[in-house]
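Saturday, quiet lab. Running sequence design on the structure tokens for the scaffold JK sent over.
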């Protein structure tokens, strides 16, 4: 079994969102973050599928020993309910402050999901239902977090022998880099961070120089040529707000509820203390940001404000009562009569926001930062865009195609699409822009390119892996680093082997070919017969091989010796978990190691089905280059069948020995799994997948021949069958063959 760590990018490689990294150490695996993309259905620029964009969680074929969360933003925690539902016994570790924030952030995501899709479970249940955030999921996660919350800088021993230390960083409350150590190997995951101190957060703590083997670092601003000047951003914030207040207007600042809202509240308080803004200028927090700020107040020991004596509660204007905002307060019993339409409710909310901003100069910090339709920030932006007295100020990252990005690019007179109202059947809205006072200030809590380079120089790791950034940002940052440090840019689903025996020993398996040898018991059986020993051990097997020609002694060694092995290829030895199979792998690994080949051993779980065995081999092949191959021994029918299925489902080359003990390709299906079975049992398959209402579909499964039963999986929650991954791939191959038959037949 391989004991060198493997790192697989399940999400968040060349993208900003769905951050999730799988660290495998021998038989143990760990998950770093579990996020999702925060796209929204209401805006055409954020398609429906993006709202449910999860990491590639199908690679999690076994329960991780632990899940470690760097901080509580949705792109780092959004898929946590899905992972927790899959592996309810897996402990979740994070800092004490993040443990208080995560349930709140997930509950708000659940509220938004129900707002935009109150019938989420009815859409393609084989996919969408599992992303739905239930209250039970969030309560279970909260209990898990309470049990495993850790103080920053305090080492914690994780299951499986991994040690973790959460080092505080300057991003949001509770955020931390995660230092992992096992067997004298150290990996440091930065999470999102800023090297310099924020308004409320202390400077980032980094590991000591030359103590880290691999640095896994975010690269959000790795491609920015204009460096972030936080002192300049602070001045620009004060100047913009002061100018609009002097004109008798108000300023709306869309913010993320966690981090940016509280930093801006502190920054505006500092401007008041310095005399740049009126001391009585009211600053309002709308949305989730207000509740998050309450947690900031309870966790003040983790803060380090730039302004001595700062009291966030004192800086915050009093909460507005429900009488002032009847549509935005808690739901009250509706009087008898017809409910107002979505458009009528929207116009009333817009009227309230306009009246509020016109009443007197004020600053409104409103969620969401991405101007999701229906949010307070969305309402405020619409009012401001039509009135030159007011101002709209963005302080974070804005994708050009987002509503904020389009508003910034608009000129007076331009028409901008606002997306659809969140209620079902809501109308699509457009806005005629009249106000030029809309701009962006770089008030970011991410490290600038200079800070990213300085971070690498301070840590001085053996290897650098860049994630959490678009491809251009990562490539530009690589240009700044590659002459001094080995830099790697993995994509989603990319797998890297992490070595500690020198610099530049991180290997991208996606560039390396592999031969997966699915072996039988021939070596053991032949040795047992020759030695007349019922159960030969490794020493006896090794001694026998020394007396015999290894190439003639077993099908495995003959197959490998007579098949050309690409230079640099990996050999994966796959077999059963029983003692004879383990001995075979040990002897084969030694024999192959003598030929300077990279060899890894893998034991299939006891009692695994053909589908599970095929998927295990497929997972190994998926790590490697597309021209990887499967080598199978012909003497073991069961393992041969598994290898054939794997090759067919992956459309990869399969090599076996023919009657003359020469390698030959064998890409056909065995007779027992003739794909025409799909056609001959189509009626039963339809009854299985689409049963009549209230009918139990499970008896239909027994009507199928055994080879087809692994093609389907029963969903206990939905009380229905769906195609398994294995079945879906076989069905695709059958349909492809059927199309070819039709073409040939004309």
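Result came back. Writing it out in full:
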């Amino acid at each position: 079994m391989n004991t060198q760590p493997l790192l697989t990018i399940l999400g968040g490689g060349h993208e900003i969102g769905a951050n999730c990294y799988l660290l495998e150490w021998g038989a143990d695996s760990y998950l770093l973050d579990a996020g999702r993309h925060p796209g929204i259905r209401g805006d055409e620029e954020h398609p429906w599928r993006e709202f449910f964009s999860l990491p590639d969680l199908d690679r999690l074929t076994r329960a991780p020993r632990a899940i470690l969360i760097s901080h509580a933003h949705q792109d780092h925690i959004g898929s946590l309910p899905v992972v927790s539902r899959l592996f309810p016994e897996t402990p979740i570790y994070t800092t004490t402050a993040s443990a208080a924030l995560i349930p709140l952030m997930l509950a708000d995501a659940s509220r938004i999901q129900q707002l935009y899709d109150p019938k989420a479970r009815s859409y393609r249940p084989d996919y969408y239902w599992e992303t739905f955030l239930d209250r039970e999921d969030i309560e279970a996660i909260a209990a898990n977090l309470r049990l495993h919350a850790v103080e920053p800088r305090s080492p914690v021993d994780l299951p499986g022998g991994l040690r973790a230390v959460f080092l505080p960083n300057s991003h949001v409350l509770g955020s931390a880099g995660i230092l992992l150590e096992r067997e004298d190997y150290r990996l440091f995951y930065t999470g999102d961070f800023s090297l310099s101190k924020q308004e409320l957060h202390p400077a980032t703590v980094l590991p000591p120089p030359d103590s880290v083997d691999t640095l896994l670092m975010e690269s959000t601003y790795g491609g920015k040529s204009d460096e972030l000047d936080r002192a300049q951003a602070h001045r620009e914030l004060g100047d913009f707000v002061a100018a609009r207040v002097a004109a008798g207007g108000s300023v709306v600042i869309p913010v993320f509820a966690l981090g940016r809202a509280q930093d801006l509240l502190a920054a505006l308080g500092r401007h008041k203390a310095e005399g740049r803004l009126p001391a009585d200028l009211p600053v309002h927090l709308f949305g989730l940001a207000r509740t998050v700020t309450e947690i900031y107040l309870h966790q003040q020991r983790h803060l380090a404000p730039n302004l001595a004596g700062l009291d966030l509660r004192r800086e915050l204007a009093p909460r507005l009562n429900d009488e002032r905002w009847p549509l935005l307060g808690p739901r009250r019993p509706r009087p008898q009569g017809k409910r107002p339409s979505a458009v009528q409710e929207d116009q009333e909310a817009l009227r309230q926001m306009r009246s509020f901003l016109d009443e007197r100069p004020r600053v409104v910090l409103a969620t969401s930062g991405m101007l999701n339709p229906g949010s307070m920030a969305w309402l405020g932006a619409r009012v401001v865009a039509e009135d030159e007295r007011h101002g709209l100020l963005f302080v974070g990252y804005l994708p050009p195609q987002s509503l904020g990005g389009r508003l910034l690019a608009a000129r007076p007179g331009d028409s901008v699409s606002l997306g659809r109202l969140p209620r079902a059947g809501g109308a699509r809205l457009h806005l005629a822009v009249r106000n030029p006072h809309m701009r962006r200030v770089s008030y970011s809590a991410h490290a600038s390119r200079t800070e990213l380079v300085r971070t690498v120089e301070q840590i001085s790791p053996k290897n650098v892996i860049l994630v959490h950034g678009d491809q251009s940002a990562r490539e530009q940052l690589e240009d700044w680093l590659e002459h001094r440090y080995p830099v790697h840019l993995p994509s989603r689903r990319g797998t890297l082997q992490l070595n500690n025996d020198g610099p530049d020993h991180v290997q991208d398996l996606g560039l390396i070919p592999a031969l997966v040898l699915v072996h039988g018991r021939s070596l053991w059986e032949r040795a047992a017969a020759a030695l007349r020993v019922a159960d030969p051990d490794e020493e006896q097997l090794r001694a026998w091989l020394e007396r015999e020609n290894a190439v003639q002694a077993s099908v495995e060694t003959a197959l490998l010796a007579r098949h050309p092995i690409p230079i640099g290829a990996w050999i994966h030895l796959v077999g059963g978990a029983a003692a004879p199979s383990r001995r075979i792998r040990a002897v084969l690994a030694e024999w192959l190691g003598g030929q300077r080949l990279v060899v890894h051993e893998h034991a299939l779980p006891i009692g695994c089905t053909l589908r599970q065995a095929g998927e295990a081999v497929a997972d190994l092949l998926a790590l490697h280059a597309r021209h990887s191959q499967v080598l199978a021994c012909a003497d073991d029918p069961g393992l041969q069948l598994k290898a054939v299925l794997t090759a067919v489902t992956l459309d990869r080359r399969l090599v076996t020995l023919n009657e003359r003990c020469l390698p030959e390709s064998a890409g056909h299906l065995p007779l027992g799994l003739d794909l025409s079975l799909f056609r001959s049992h189509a009626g039963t398959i339809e009854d299985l997948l689409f049963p009549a209402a209230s009918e139990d579909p499970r008896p239909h499964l027994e009507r199928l021949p055994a080879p087809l039963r692994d093609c389907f999986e029963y969903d206990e929650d939905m009380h229905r069958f769906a195609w398994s991954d294995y079945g879906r791939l076989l069905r695709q191959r059958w349909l492809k063959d059927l199309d070819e038959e039709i073409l040939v037949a004309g």
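Notes for JK: The radius of gyration is 30 Å. The chain is about 35% helix and 20% strand. Ask whether to fix the surface positions before the next round.
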